[in-house]
Amino acid sequence: MKILKFTCALLLCASIYSCSTDDDNSEDLSGQKGNVVLKFDNGVGDQDFIFGTSYNRSNGESFQLETLKYIVSNIRFKDNMGNTFMYPVNDNVFIVSEASGNNAGEILLTLKDVEAANYTEITFGIGVDQDRFALGADGQGNFLAAAQDQGMMWSWATGYKFIRFDGTYSSETATDEGLNFHMGSVGTSLDNYKETTLTFPNSVLVRAGKTPEIHIKADIMKAFDGVTSVNFADGYDQVHVDAVETPIIATNVASMFMVHHVHND
Amino acid sequence: MKKEILVLLIVTLCACSKAPDEAGYVPIPIVVDIPSNFPDMVYNLDNNQITEAGFELGKKLFYEGKLSANNAIPCAFCHEQAFAFTHHEHTVSHGLNGGVGRRNAQPIQNLAYQSEFMWDGAATHLDLQPIIPITAEVEMGETLSNVISKLKADNYYQNQFGKAFEDGEINGENLLKALSQFMIMMVSSNSKYDKYVRKEDNVSLSTLELDGLQTFKNKCASCHATDLFTDQSYRNTGLPVNPKLDDKGRFSIFENTDDLYKFKVPSLRNVEKSNPYMHDGRFATLEAVLNFYDTGIIENGGQVDAVLTKEDGTLGITLLDYEKKSLIAFLKTLTDNEFLTDERFSEF
Question: Any CB–CB contact under 8 A between B138 and chain A?
């Protein structure tokens, strides 16, 4: 009888203990903040992107670029509980410039003080949304000057260039003709800001003192052969403010990103 | 509701500016009055609260040569107060290294009531407009980064940005906000006409001026609408194209052929003082402008605005000699000497 009581007590303890260890497993993350590094890695199909290298397209055209830049903004994460963490709006706009990449051709954006959670997806915009434009100078901080230094702002009009590709293309009929995409929104009537949502292959675990890395690949080929395929020779060699061409390219560019892998720290 | 937000804002701002020993943030608000005969303000003051220190900074920047590459061309170079902040007697303006622009400098007045700026609407927010002249090679030819580093090296600006903005930063945001604060205050609303329509000071118009007003209402006010004297639209007025400039107007914004040779309808306030006229300053006098509307309009390659086609299909606005004379007399009642001599906007 004593043994039975003892066993019961032991079982009870064990079950209580197991409950409490469960609680320990779903650790209390409130108030914790960590960093996240986004690695943008531009490529073309199954090749790495390299300045001055010529890439062939399935339509017979080829291209090479000397400038490759785009603006990303409004970065936010969704966690496994369905909550969204929006990075602070005033700091949430970045220029991804291939020229400032490391030797591996990766451009690193560091997000500080991200709320700790198990994140399952990321959403970001390419370009600058109408809400930010409507604020005028408010909240732009140093970004206006930074964008101008990077050639990501027009001088003839007041707007950001969301996407900047400069280079040349060749086709059956053209050799080394200029290829220039300088495009963004134009005022309030032509809105080319687009967003993309990417699911992580495994959760990104943001914790205090940890800096997980998210490796995002961008397939530049999809800017031309994405949702819609366009031929440089048909006028898509110079894409600036055209109300038909620019939304097509904006949609294509938004489709060129994927999360390749995640490194949890 | 807006007022509550404003009050809260001021309270928080005050609460933050406690450190008495540093020459920090001094948010003494300036109340912005909307003239009773004006439409609503477009500019959102909630994002840029006007303060005495911010206005003072904006004025200093407006007259500051350091905004240009050679430190010698301030905004005021092409925007002189006595001429409603235009470049007097210049058809088009010149700037850095003798560079010549292709358009006539527009007046700076009542801009907080407008949604788009420049002759072609290239700027869609007042804050961002100054980027165009600051960076244009033929105007001030400078970069924002260079302007900011020049200002950072200047004691006055180190101090004044601190007084004008809570974060005290000398950066693009605060530079442009200060310029906007100055421009928002540049309101011309006290002409003879204004006092007449607001029934102030027993001001009356002469018979000639009243006849001009009547003709204006019949023949001009569909475009030069409201007491801003512009409906803020873009129109092709059938001006012969100057092949030397080949300025396609609003076409350059969207490259849409419907926009060929369209330019923004300008305000007519202080028009007596803002000569020469049209987007390229081709007409030296108001008589020349009215003669053009009477008999000078041509098919210029774009779609000439429908309101400029008469019932018989010919182009123009028929104006008799007396109508022209009275129109000009009326237009001169839009001259606002209080604005043109207001010391708040003067350099010295």
Answer: no
Among A residues 216-245, those touching chain B with beta carbons less than 8 Å apart: 240-243
Say whether both B48 and B174 belong to one domain.
yes
Asked if B103 reaches chain A (Cβ–Cβ under 8 Å), the answer is no
A55 beta partners: A63
B47, B254, B255 ranked by CB distance to A138: nearest:
B47
End position of a domain, from candidates B158, B187, B216: B187
For B:226-255, CB contacts with A below 8 A are 252-255
Residues of A in contact with B123 (CB under 8 A): 157-158
User: Which pTM value belongs to this model?
Assistant: 0.87
Q: Are B135 and A142 an interchain contact pair (Cβ–Cβ within 8 Å)?
A: no
Is B280 touching A (CB cutoff 8 A)? no
B101 with B139: CB under 8 angstroms?
A: yes
- Same domain for B176 and B236? no
CB contact under 8 A, A148 and B148: no
Chain B contacts of A135, Cβ < 8 Å? 47
Query: Do B99 and B22 reside in the same domain of the chain?
Result: yes
Q: Does residue B345 lie within any of the structural domains?
A: no
Given CB atoms, is B181 within the 8 Å cutoff of chain A?
A: no
Residue B292, domain extent: 192-338
pLDDT digit string (tens) for A63-116?
999 999 999 999 999 999 999 999 999 999 999 999 999 999 999 999 999 999
Alpha-carbon gap, residue A200 to A196, rounded angstroms: 13
In a domain, B202, yes or no: yes
Could A240 and B255 be called an inter-chain contact, meaning their C-beta atoms sit closer than 8 Å?
yes
Q: What is the CATH number of the domain that holds B326?
A: 1.10.760.10
Tell me: the pLDDT tens digits for B92-132? 999 998 899 999 999 999 999 999 999 999 999 999 999 99
| A135 touching B (Cβ < 8 Å) | yes
Chain B residues 117-136 with CB within 8 Å of chain A: 121-129, 131-132, 135-136
Over the stretch B11-64, which tens digit does the pLDDT of each residue have?
Answer: 444 444 444 445 699 899 999 999 999 999 999 999 999 999 999 999 999 999
B261 Cα to chain A: minimum distance (Å): 17
Residue of A nearest to B42 (CA): A134
Flag whether B109 is in a domain. yes
B149 shares its domain with B37: yes
Tokens of B327: 């129109």
Does residue B176 fall inside a structural domain?
yes
CB–CB contact B172 A145 (8 Å): yes
CB of B256 within 8 A of CB of A186? no
Say yes or no: B172 contacts chain A, CB-CB below 8 A. yes
